[in-house]
Amino acid sequence: xxLQVSSLRIEIGARVLLDDANFRIAEGEKxxxxxxxxxxKTTLLKTLVGQNAPTAGEVNLPxxxxxxxxxxxxxAEVSDLLVYDHLLAGSRLHALHELVHDASNGIxxxxxxxxxEALDAAVHHYTELExxxxxxxxYDIERTAENIARGLDLDDDALLLQVxxxxxxxxxxxxLARLLLAGGELLILDEPTNxxxxxxxxxxxxxxxxxxxxxxxVSHDIELMSESxxxxxxxxxxxxxxxxxxxxxxxxxxxxxxASLTREAANAQREIDRLKTTADKFRQGNATAARKRRxxxxxxxxxxxxxxxxxxxxxxxxxxxxxxxxxRAGDVVMRVEGLVKAFxxxxxxxxxxxxxxxxEVFLVVGVxxxxKTTLLxxxxxxxxxxxxxxxxxxxxxxxxxxxxxEDIRPGDSxxxxxxxxxxxxxxxxxxxxxxxxFGLTGDVASxxxxxxxxxxxxxxxxxxxxxxxxxxxxLDEPTNNLDPSSREAVLAALQHFKGTVVxVSHDIExxxxxxxxxxxxxxxxxxxxxxxxxxxxxPQLEPLAxxxxx
Length: 550
Fold this sequence. Notes:
Elements: E1 3-12, E2 15-25, E3 30-34, H1 41-48, E4 56-60, E5 65-68, H2 83-89, H3 94-113, H4 116-135, H5 141-151, H6 156-159, H7 168-182, E6 186-190, H8 198-210, E7 214-218, H9 222-228, E8 231-236, E9 239-244, H10 247-280, H11 287-308, E10 332-343, E11 346-357, E12 361-366, H12 372-379, E13 387-392, E14 398-401, H13 414-421, H14 428-437, H15 454-468, E15 472-476, H16 484-495, E16 500-504, H17 508-514, E17 518-522, E18 526-529
């Protein structure tokens, strides 16, 4: 077995996320872990890789596995490395390549020493290592690395940057590229398609489907789950149910199972009611009547016990999101003229001009790393422009949604985050009500916001916008980490929002349903009428190996 889990129990505070879980993943299996936001999927993955300690149970991982966390932190120790070199270092053949290089130097040193025995030993050592490296496919590693990077929209310019110069989205794609290049017996991936456009998602789907590695993936990308997996682990109510087949097959089997459980429960209750009625008739009588009553009560107990062993159907609460009607702004809510933003010598936003009118959905589109997030941060006032201006219209109140959730401060509770964003000093009860509309109920309000799952952080950030009553929403990838039902609820809320939306998103269906009127294409800064084809922008790449070190 590639992964073996026995009697696993996970608790967070007083909450039991998982109880007595037993499952295994065999060699080459592709498994999707699914469940609603907050069910504990990310916590389970962190427990499997040893970042969290289980309350009880045992996890046996293979010797060679890869782990992609949902949130990728910057690592100062590699910030000065070239992206291309850091990518290659992710290969499991990298260490062997270094040994081959050292052995080659050993031949040179032995030659200089003019010691025949030392030279023979050095040549023999190099030959053994070089043969091992060649048979393992080492001479194909650069080509493979470049193909993976291109598939994930890390273009030539990005690969020749220093790691520290990458955006958050580029950094995450680099970590995914390193993981895919490394391979291993098992890949554990938490939302691998976040920050990817349509063609990059297709690349990931195809790679995972054909990889010899076993895969355990958490993803809200339905296509990825439908096309690339053959088993589903459903985590709900602290238990894991195992299903064989694609995500579509899982949905059908789960619906059939829950319908069957509902029928069984109803039939069991009818039988219990019938037996109780019959038993009541024997309450007044002789010893024979008492014996019959006891037999009936024992049958009732057996039925109740049998039902208790079965996982009841999940009552999934539909998320209902509504953005309040905002204060009316002027006809023009934002005017951008000659906007320039650079980081060092790199000009990210270059002389951009556009106007946003009240009530429209305005799209910022472009390939990964084109400067979309930087532009949005300039509009939000988080980055001061190096040249040009961002002028807000009359009575405009901005609300900004950050895709990395870095504006959620460590130590603040969920309720404190809401209170900080409240524009009119709503009461705690009112803010709790807003949270409840996003499925954040009960003790979650007092939980430290930084400990929420990715999906829960997304819901909190959106709830914060509702509490802030902004009339211009700046949204940077708002559907990342949302389960399908939550995504639909947010879409419906934005469709009925009477304010203005400036949006960055790779979610084609989501953007199309919002029907933006205009789009600005980055990095060129061209203002264009919206066309759905804009969402498939992909860079054209040339061979890179010859440019390395240029």
